[in-house]
Structure formats: structure tokens, C-alpha cells
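Sample intake sheet
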Amino acid sequence: MNGGESILYWTAALCTAVTFFLTIVSLVFKKTTLFTSARATIVAAFVLITIFGISRWIEWGHPPFVTLFESMITSIWFLLLMYLMVSYFSRKTVILLLPVSLAAMLLMGWSASLSSEGSPLSEALTNTWLFIHASFATAGASAFLIAASFSVLFLMGKDRMERMQTISAQVPDYSDLPRSILNFLLFGLVLWGVMIVSGSIWAHTAWGRYWAWDPIELWSLISWLLYGVVVHARLAFKLPLRVFCWLTIAAALTVAFSLWGVGYLYKTIHSYG
């Protein structure tokens, strides 16, 4: 990162941490003004990450999807974008700020441990299908993280949710949370499915085969199938809501592993850069 990018990155990271801290304090001490400030800092984080991504796009001549660091930052951007859109169109979901800011803060912390050096595109990566594949991967991961965030709110319990209304009237009804979780799981399944299909098309173009049981391919498929099982169990067999929420959170961990953790444990042809 150059000097300007470094300032943008670390200021955005600080904003995510401040957002989480302010949200926690506002809930504990019932301070409405702090909650309002937290909403402002998450918007600031989104704006800073947007500028950061545009800067890298201009510098390297391609969208910021290529390195592991860029993939994680883009996923954070999609997560915040999805949160802001949800909170704009459904004002009673602003309390999602608590789990969303925590997820963004943790991902920013993880990204800080990675190399931030940019990388030019190799011949195999110069393909439109790659950017379709990467876009749907990061957007799908964000949808699953939003579903996991709703699950966290549900697991907090009805009493705590009702007490949150003393901080903000824009708190969703407890009974509406399962439907929100299911909607985002279905949305994420579609996005993740497109990611797998577009990745197969790109792989055929780059490597001459659609599927090779590479660890990242395998774990992406496992995540998609796991979410499919969870959704089917809820719709067809009325899976208990608390179990449904815990499985939604657990499945989100497999998504994070398939995107960013596989390379730590397995040799994979899906190298970044």
C-alpha cells in the first residue's frame, strides 16, 4: 500500500472498531446518542473502503479481487454495503450493527496480517468470468454473514431484543428474525451457486477442465450443500429455530474457511495473484 492507501485502510479499520465499541456501550448504558454515532462511523468505514478499493483498481488496472488481502477487503465492502441497503429499506434492522460491525472488525484485523502488496493479472486471470466468479463469491459470503448476524440477534433472546428498543425504536420484531435469516440464506445460496458455476466456466477456459476437486472447489461445494441442507431442514422438517440459527452460524464459518482459510492447510491451484 502507498501512503494514501495506508491512511484509508487504517482509518477504515479504526472506524469498524469504534462502531463495535460504541454499539456495545450504547446497549449496556442505554445511550441513544452513542448508537447514532456508531451508525455514522460504519458509514464512514464503508466510504473509506470504497475509496481504498477504487484507488487500488486505478493503480493496478483491475478490480481488487486478485490477492487474498483484496478478496477479504472486498468481502468487507460487500458486507457493509448489504447492511446499509438492508437498514435503509427496512429501518427496523439497524440493530444488525452489533454483529455486522464485529464481523467487519475481525475481518479487518485478519486482513492486517496479510500481505497488502498488489499483483498484476496473470494470463489465466485475465478473463471476464473470473470477475463474475469473484464478485458473486464475495457478495454471497456477505449474504451468509448477514444471515448469521440475524441468527446472533435471535439467539440473544426475546427479552434482550425488547430491551434494545429502549436504545432505538428501529429494532426488528423478534418473531420476524427467522424469516429474515431464511431470506438471506436463499439469497446467498443463489449467489454462491452462481459463483460455483461461473468458477467452473472460468476453470475450463483457464485450465481446460470444469472441475478438479481442488480443496477450494470442494469446500465451496460443501458450504453450498450445507446451506441447502439447513434451508431444506427448516422448510420441510420445521427444524427448531435455535438449532437453525446455530447451523446458520456454523455454515458461515465454512464459507470463511473456503474463501480465506483453505490456503493455510492445503496446497491448491487457486492461488491468489
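Comment: The mean pLDDT is 88. DSSP finds nine helices and no strands in the chain.
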